[in-house]
Design goal:
The strands form 6 sheets. A 9-stranded mixed beta sheet has the order 10-11-9-8-7-6-5-2-14, with helices on both faces. A 3-stranded antiparallel beta sheet has the order 15-16-17, with helices on one face. The protein is an alpha/beta fold. It has 2 domains: 112 residues, Arc Repressor Mutant, subunit A, CATH 1.10.10.920; 298 residues, pyruvate-formate lyase- activating enzyme, CATH 3.80.30.
Length: 450
Amino acid sequence: MRPELAARYADERLPRYTSYPTAPHFSASVGPGAYGEWLEEVPRDATASLYLHVPFCRRMCWYCGCNTSVASRHQPVSDYLTALDAEIGMVAERLPGRLAVSHVHFGGGTPTIIRPDELLGLMARLRAAFDTRPDAEVAIEIDPRVLTAAMAATLGEAGFTRASLGVQSLDPVVQGAINRHQSLEETAEAVARLRAAGIEGLNLDLIYGLPHQTVASSVETAKACLTLRPDRFSVFGYAHVPGFKRHQRKIDTGTLPDGSERNAQADAIAAEIEAAGYKRIGLDHFALPDDAMATAAASGELHRNFQGYTTDAADILIGLGASAIGHLPQGYVQNAPVTRDYCAAIDRGGLATVRGFALGGDDRLRADLIERLMCDYRVDLADICSRHGTGVEAIADALPALDRLAADGVLRREGGVVEMADDARTLVRVAAAAFDAYRGSSAAIHSRAV
């Protein structure tokens, strides 16, 4: 990206647009009653994806923005799994039938904090409640430092097909500043164990913009990880929001790179990965040319949800566990974020929904526009609007912002087509924000544009 664009836009704080409207705009007007009704209205022939949140880790990484806590004993984890099992049953009972499932994703926290026998039991419960397709992608997030040989073997036995391994940075100075010490050897051992268990779909997650991080150290991390040859990389910018994540206050803000340096790190990592033969997918993913994500991106079938870019085209997303978000045709729902509150709600025999958002026609239109721009770097305004039974005048409020970005060279607008400039694609969130009718006071909780 051109330096003048980085200087002007890189420090803007914007949503990642993994949903629209974004989670800060959810409200308590959507609760367990509404969610129960929405589940009952799901068409019998709908396809679903499942997201299960496991909010526990063995230790806290100071950069973390996830909903998680440190579990020094296993009993809280076991108690949580009891509640999760009950929620699966409640949700399944309200659905009109045994829905076909095309994707299952375990996130955290550290989902592999579950014991092998518990994981097998949980997978059996899911398969009893839902019709998991034989070709379904079953994915899990992993901390390589705590992946045991027994758990790796269990993942293979349970039918997992993909694993995302957190690396972030291999620079010892950066690792010390974020309280996450992890060697390349530990990561390589985890990769070997997963492949030996038959799990070939592997992602490595990297972060730029961390304390003391430099372009040189970012490139060295990328080079080291490329020796493991995963089929995908995710490269995210660190979101420093200490007002909402108290443990981030342990990070000295004076050691964080500014927007221009973050941009340089992101560009350097991308160049290294692309030089190794990976295709850039959207804002922050990379995949080998024959990977399903690369194929989806090339054919305009890439999607974006709360896990980021995905090949998941399911009709609904069912979120299970504390803080989990679901997406149904009627809108979004989110469970209680605090584990104690989530378990208490389930123990009382009700769903744990505490907030959500009922979608209107304008919301669905803008969600489609944002998703296509985020996935394709290009969107045909007239075509999308016509699919929603309206014209471009319905989004007239977005046009002045798009014109300003076009004048700066961030994008091109020819007729009804908006397309990001090749050297400004990392600013796609800035362009997406032009369609956001709710953007306003929530900027402080979002990450920088780059």
